[in-house]
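Example 480, ligand NAP.
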Amino acid sequence: MLNMIPQLIIGLTNLVAAFLLLYGLKRMSSPVTAPSGIFVAGIGMLVAILASFLFVFGVTAAAKPHLSMNILLAVIGLVVGGGAAWWSGKKVAMTAMPQMVALYNGMGGGAAGAIAAVELFGDKPHGAVQLIVTLLGALIGAVSLSGSLIAWAKLQGILNQPLRFHGQQVFNGIVLLLTVLVGVTLVFYTQLPEHAVISMPALICVFFALALLSGVLMTLPIGGADMPVVISIYNAFTGLAVGLEGFVLQNPALMIAGMVVGAAGLLLTLLMAKAMNRSVSNVLFTNFGEAKAKKQGAIKGSLKPVDAGDAGIFMRYASKVIIVPGYGLAVAQGQQKLYEFVKLLQTKGVDVKFAVHPVAGRMPGQMDVLLAEAGVPYDLIFQLEDINDDFATTDVVMVIGANDVVNPAARTDKASPIYGMPILNADKAKKVYVLKRGEGKGYAGIVNLLFYADNCEMVYGDAQASLIKMIEAVRGLGAA
Ligand code: NAP
């Protein structure tokens, strides 16, 4: 009976960790509850770590006393890893968040691959099923590691051009097939009594090298607008790999955390793919990112510059204003000035709302976080499906640093790489002001037809500087 108590404590700790992770995730689904959701999930991770320590050093160490020697290494790993994460999390700029997500994601995949490597290189005998699960986790983890690192390099601007060549998909398929074949060979040879017939460590190294290469090859051809979907696919991969290795180690905390991350990543992948109008199978099995580089349709109209102050004054006398924030707002760090301007308009009786596109910015939820940081109340922020019908009855739309998410080419130009992507109907408003620095294109690298429309005027300059001019102009009117 007494012997069962440690197992009971470990089981309960795992249960608490699972509950906290799921509850935290649930709270992250709304910007209102997301900060506390992150905190709850963080506590869940701490409890999961505690459960793992109890598991390894409580139950197993009793049977294998030498394991307790590893406690120092594990603590050092936790302190170094936790410290680096804490420091980089505090330091990272809002605009560099996607790179950081890609990097952390890759680390998760790498950790799963490392667990698999310890199992494969170790001297423990493995049954066929256990070996298959280990290899599967190793393959997925390694793909996620190298693929995420390539995604990081692309987002960081180190790798600028998608790398494509003739017969690429066939080549990628052959490399993946070879990886699987090496894995199958490993399983068969390990089941033979005389399994030292070939050098297993060498074969394991070949397996990992091919798996890592697969991740690189899968990600290299991806360009531009598909990147968020790719990152969330790798997020799902990492979760799956961690869950599989949890199964190998018979560690419930790892299994639960892995499956939660895997499921969340998969759901995010589906949502992102929908928001960018790509099917997941298209993203997975085609030369994804292959934007059909056909010629863009003819452009009618002209770009019409307007003074920031004049635009501000025009909005002050409007009844309904919708603001569309985009990546450029994060670049300009203009969120505080934006909210200051909005409050000013509100004191003048203007009805102001924010319209957020699901892929505005460079990561899901980036605009919500940016606006929350400036203190914008959540009831002023509307998602695409909740506000898109309002544009037609709106006096002014102010597009700040957004581009692709308001490009009508998505509706009309079949040759456009963003064709079919749901966009915010900014062009349907009576008047549109676009705040941007110059003729820069958006992430998809295409011309925005909205900017040339009759009802659209361009406020050129850094978004924060333009907002400051707008605030000064409206304040300059006095109580009028
Ligand atoms: P966008 O299409 O990338 O356009 C951003 C615009 O901001 C640019 O046209 C740029 O024009 C302007 N800009 C940059 N710095 C500025 C500054 N300091 N002040 C004023 N304007 C500035 O942005 P978006 O409309 O938010 O669309 C997001 C795009 O990123 C979509 O194509 C989406 O698919 C893709 N994407 C999304 C995610 C995600 O998960 N949200 C992740 C990766 C990629 P100037 O250079 O002329 O100033």
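Summary: The mean pLDDT is 87.
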